[in-house]
């Protein structure tokens, strides 16, 4: 198995599993350049092992190698692991070696949910979860098709946020050019996210609607996040939405 370990190391395909002989994967053709290979198991390539360059071998004796493949890595491309229903999440599975063909598999809670075939030149695959709902929630891992170990896991949490509330901190009637302060709030224990304030009607300068985005404060003891916005015009009718 020492020779097999060196082959798998040279290919970057993990550790040796077995070395079937007698042309198990089919007989090769052409000249045989290496025979009676003897490796200690620490070499980085077969050329560092001792061998006979003029062997009296035949292709029906060709050796095969089965490698374990190193486990791939997993990363979350999206900004947050906690998302609102309807959003899109992207997960990237990567491998350290790019000289082995095969598939990268995506698992959720131990069940294969997607796969992508890779050529020997590719080192990663991106999986997109669109319009997520509660069925997408869970623990995700990556694995390589050649019996590799799984990557570390990442958790995706899908939440349904309650409808946010909007209130005016000043009078509903404000003189043109004066400031009107609005309060946006929502009760949630989830960190991060933004409020988006959208103007639905009223005098508009150049576009069909205006949007203001403000960061939410940390939750209070009651779990309420709030944001404030000054609008230097008559208060428009607004639609308020939140997302993590």
Gist of the model:
One of its GO terms (biological process) is zymogen activation. It is found in: Membrane; Secreted. The chain has one helix spanning 2-11; strands at residues 16-18, 35-38, 50-52, 66-67, 73-76, 82-84, 89-94, 102-108, 111-118, 124-129, 138-144, 154-159, 165-168, 180-187, 194-199, 211-215, 224-231, 238-243.
Descriptive notes:
With 244 residues, the protein is mainly beta. It folds into 3 domains: 2-67, Mac-2 Binding Protein (Roll), CATH 3.10.250.10; 73-159, Immunoglobulins (Immunoglobulin-like, Sandwich); 165-243, Immunoglobulin-like (Sandwich). It is 4% helix and 39% strand. The chain contains 1 helix and 18 strands. The chain has one helix at residues 2-11; strands at 16-18, 35-38, 50-52, 66-67, 73-76, 82-84, 89-94, 102-108, 111-118, 124-129, 138-144, 154-159, 165-168, 180-187, 194-199, 211-215, 224-231, 238-243. The strands form 6 sheets. It has a 5-stranded mixed β-sheet with strand order 6-12-11-8-9, with no helix packed on it. Strands 5-7-10 form a 3-stranded antiparallel β-sheet, with no helix packed on it. Strands 13-14-17 form a 3-stranded antiparallel β-sheet, with no helix packed on it. Strand 8 (102-108) and strand 9 (111-118) form a beta hairpin. Pfam families: Ig_2, SRCR. This is Ig-like domain-containing protein. Residues 72-155 form the Ig-like domain.
- By CATH, the superfamily of the largest domain comes out as Immunoglobulins
Shape: rod-shaped
Query: Structural class of the secondary elements?
Result: mainly beta
Q: Strand order across the biggest sheet? A: 6-12-11-8-9
Distance between the termini: 52 Å
Helical segment count: 1
Rounded mean pLDDT is 75
**Percent of residues in helices:** under 10%
Low-confidence stretches: 204-244
- Major sheet: 5 strands, mixed
């Amino acid at each position: 198995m020492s020779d097999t370990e060196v082959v798998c190391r040279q290919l970057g395909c993990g550790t040796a599993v077995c070395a079937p002989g007698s042309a198990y994967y089919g007989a090769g053709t052409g000249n045989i350049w290496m025979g009676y290979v003897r490796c200690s198991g620490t070499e980085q390539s077969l050329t560092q092992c001792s061998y006979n360059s003029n062997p009296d071998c035949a292709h029906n004796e060709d050796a095969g190698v089965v490698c374990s493949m190193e486990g791939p890595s997993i990363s979350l491309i999206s900004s947050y692991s906690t998302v609102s229903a309807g959003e899109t999440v992207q997960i990237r599975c990567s491998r350290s070696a790019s000289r082995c063909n095969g598939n990268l598999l995506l698992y959720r809670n131990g069940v294969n949910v997607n796969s992508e075939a890779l050529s020997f030149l590719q080192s990663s695959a991106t999986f997109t979860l669109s319009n997520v709902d509660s069925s997408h929630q869970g623990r995700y891992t990556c694995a390589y098709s050649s019996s590799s170990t799984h990557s570390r896991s990442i958790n995706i949490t899908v939440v349904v946020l309650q409808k946010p509330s909007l209130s005016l901190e000043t009078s509903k009637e404000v003189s043109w050019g004066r400031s009107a302060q609005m309060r946006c709030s929502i009760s949630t224990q989830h960190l991060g996210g933004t409020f988006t304030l959208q103007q639905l009607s009223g005098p508009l300068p150049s576009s069909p609607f205006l949007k203001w985005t403000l960061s939410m404060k940390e939750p209070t003891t009651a779990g309420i996040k709030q944001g404030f916005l000054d609008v230097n015009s008559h208060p428009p009718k607004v639609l308020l939405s939140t997302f993590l």
